[in-house]
Specification:
487 residues; alpha/beta; five-stranded parallel sheet; five-stranded mixed sheet; elongated
Length: 487
């Protein structure tokens, strides 16, 4: 096994090539280059330095991953026969995937690797753009970047933007966070005599004529919160400001307890948007739910008890822990098996020496949901009707008992029996996998919507409600019902 030396050609032209690199290139017996598309190589060729290019490998594959893997494999095979030098643009350890494959191969004992210097493209780009990296910057790969990795408050450099297609992919990713006309700069051949800077609105990024292997896209940091409304840190900053000393008096005085009703209301409004299949409504209502989450997290941080990071860590750990079939080596047959695993893991986490089975299932904000929770928990230990028919029979039995109490009983016994009727009706809903809370929410919304139509008709008549009989009002109700059904 012979040594494989990786060396950097620098980021600019021949005049910027380091003398030590130049001497090693001249002394190399077997020299490979990743691509011949580099200004230094024309001069080296004129001096009689011979090399082999891997440009042909790019043409064999549709994506970059197999390109770089094949290049690394070819170099490892070549190093078995003789010492090999491999020259790459810039610095070997900056944005060079083939080198990362070679480093991994060395760890596995497949090659003896030596990495030499070479100026990276970063220094001349910082100079061309006149920016200080101490302010914070990101270097991203244009062929694999994700909007989730973007920090809008830092200088962003995007490499591997070499043609219109790659520029289009980068543009679409950036548009997920930045406004369409946000200014971006295309830097070409930084540090060389051919250096060129072109600033365009984001939507024109893939229409720039000159894009090649020496191109880097620069995205400047945002200068205001209004330019970063799609960034999580902006929203967190807004909530912290509202709760801060110079913030909103209403937000400042809120507590976990005072906000409970709002979280419930916003969740119900989101469910209504789901029922209406209203995408815009879902966006708005999910935002309102998110507001409640962030407010509670900020209150926790203000009080010194917990913060948003702890909330994120808790739910992330739980999702990984309770999905061993995704993040581990557990196999599952179907969704029911997933649920069974989830419950088993949950029991193991909390320990079987819990308190009473129904502990923690009470919901002060909803008696319907509490009934559903109690029944569901009891059913898991076998305290349940075998099938829906039995649940129906129990409901009919309780309904008859309620009717008897209505004619013969006291207010207290009527209240008691009516509670039993509602409780057994919740049980029936559970057998049919219907959420009683959601069903009641839907019924309330339907009533409000149809009664709203009745109000509109009464108002349009110029009369008061007293002027209409119940039968006439019921006609309006039926009209609203038919309109909803499209009849």
């Amino acid at each position: 096994m012979h040594q494989l030396t990786v060396i950097g050609l620098g980021a600019a032209d021949f005049n910027q090539l380091q003398m030590g690199v130049y001497k090693q290139l001249k002394q190399a017996e077997t020299l490979y280059v990743r691509t011949e598309d580099h200004p230094v190589l024309n001069d080296l060729k004129e001096e009689g330095i011979k090399f082999s290019s891997f440009d042909y490998v790019y043409e064999k594959h549709d994506t970059f991953a197999p390109v770089y893997e094949e290049m690394a494999s070819l170099l490892i095979e070549a190093a078995k026969e003789a010492p090999v030098m491999y020259a790459v643009p810039g610095h070997p350890l900056v944005a060079e995937q083939t080198v990362q494959h070679l480093i991994e191969a060395e760890r596995n004992g497949q090659v003896t690797l030596k990495i030499e210097g070479g100026q990276s493209f970063l220094d001349p780009i910082f100079g061309a753009l006149k920016i200080d990296p101490i302010e914070g910057f990101q270097l991203l790969d244009g062929t694999s970047m994700s909007m989730h990795a973007i920090n809008m408050r830092q200088h962003i450099l995007i490499a591997q933007v070499y043609d219109a297609f790659s520029a289009s992919e980068v543009k679409l990713t950036l548009m997920e966070k930045y406004r369409d006309d946000y200014p971006v700069t295309i830097v070409t051949a930084a540090g060389s005599a051919q250096e060129k800077l072109t600033t365009v609105p984001l939507y024109e990024l893939d229409h720039v004529a000159e894009l090649n292997n020496l191109t880097t896209v620069y995205v400047p940091p945002v200068t205001s919160d209004e330019e970063a409304l799609r960034d999580w840190t902006t929203f967190r900053k807004i909530i912290a400001t509202l709760r801060g000393p110079e913030g909103c008096p209403w937000d400042q005085k809120q507590t976990h307890e005072s906000l409970k009703k709002y979280l419930l209301e916003e969740a119900h409004e989101f469910l209504a948007a789901v029922d209406a299949e209203d995408d815009e409504g879902m966006i708005e209502e999910l935002g309102d739910v998110l507001l409640q989450v962030f407010l509670h997290a900020q209150i926790g941080e203000d009080n010194g008890y917990f913060n948003l990071e702890e909330v994120l860590a808790s739910i992330s750990e739980k999702m990984i822990r309770r999905h061993p079939h995704v993040f581990g080596d557990v196999s599952v047959e179907d969704a029911d098996h997933v649920v069974a695993n989830w419950e088993a893991i949950k029991r193991a986490e909390k320990g079987q020496v819990e308190g009473r089975l129904l502990e923690g299932k009470y919901r002060a904000e909803s008696a319907l949901q509490t009934a559903y929770n109690y029944q569901k928990k009891a059913a898991k230990v076998g305290f349940d009707w075998p099938n829906a028919d039995d649940a129906w029979e129990k409901f009919i039995e309780e309904m008859k008992e309620f009717q008897v109490e209505m004619s013969e009983g006291s207010p207290a016994t009527r209240l008691d029996e009516f509670g039993d009727v509602l409780f057994t009706l919740v049980n029936v809903a559970r057998f049919y996998k219907i959420s009683p809370e959601e069903a009641m929410l839907h019924a309330n919304e339907k009533f409000a919507r149809r009664f709203g139509y009745i109000e509109e008709q009464v108002k349009a008549s110029g009369k008061d409600f007293d002027a209409f009989t119940l039968e006439e009002l019921d006609c309006f109700w039926n009209e609203a019902k038919r309109m909803e059904k499209g009849e």
